[in-house]
From TrEMBL:
BP term (GO), one: cell differentiation
UniProt cross-references to SMART domains, sorted A to Z: BRLZ
Gene assigned in the entry: BATF
Ranges where the BZIP domain occurs: 28-91
Higher taxonomy: Eukaryota, Metazoa, Chordata, Craniata, Vertebrata
UniProt-annotated location(s): Cytoplasm
Keyword Iron-sulfur annotated: no
Name of protein: Basic leucine zipper transcriptional factor ATF-like
PROSITE patterns listed in its UniProt record: BZIP, BZIP_BASIC
Naturally occurring in which organism (per UniProt): Oncorhynchus kisutch
Length: 129
């Protein structure tokens, strides 16, 4: 098959005309530039992907540390709540005869004539050891 735009020549192989040679070299330059641009874009994309993976890894490690610390705090607070509950359970029988049964009784008790819960706790404190 003939190359170039001149079809009047009957030979199978033609040397490129100067115009088609310039067009071919221009296409090659564009192709090389496009490949280089694509290579740089792919390199930047891989770099961003690596940075994102590194960032996610660091965030994951930090969240795991925070989770561990929070679980430790939950455990400590649960143990403290159990301890305080046992102290209260132990202490309640000592105070059951001294404290009114309801908040209403505490606030409107005729024995204290308008005393508050604060005043009541002060009055009762001398019975505690």
């Amino acid at each position: 098959m003939a190359h170039g735009s001149d079809s009047s020549d009957s030979s199978c192989v033609k040397s490129p005309s100067p115009a088609s040679s310039r067009q071919g070299s221009s296409d090659n330059i564009k192709k090389v530039m496009r490949r280089e641009k694509n290579r740089i874009a792919a390199q930047k994309s891989r770099m961003r992907q690596t940075q994102k993976a590194d960032s996610l890894h660091l965030e994951s490690e930090n969240l795991e540390k925070e989770n561990t610390a929070l679980r430790k705090e939950v455990k400590r607070l649960t143990e403290e709540a159990k301890y305080l509950s046992s102290v209260l359970t132990t202490h309640e029988p000592l105070c059951s005869g001294l404290a009114p049964q309801t908040t209403h009784d505490l606030l409107y008790s005729p024995h204290h004539h308008g005393s508050t819960a604060f005043h009541h706790s002060i009055a009762v404190s001398h019975y505690q050891h």
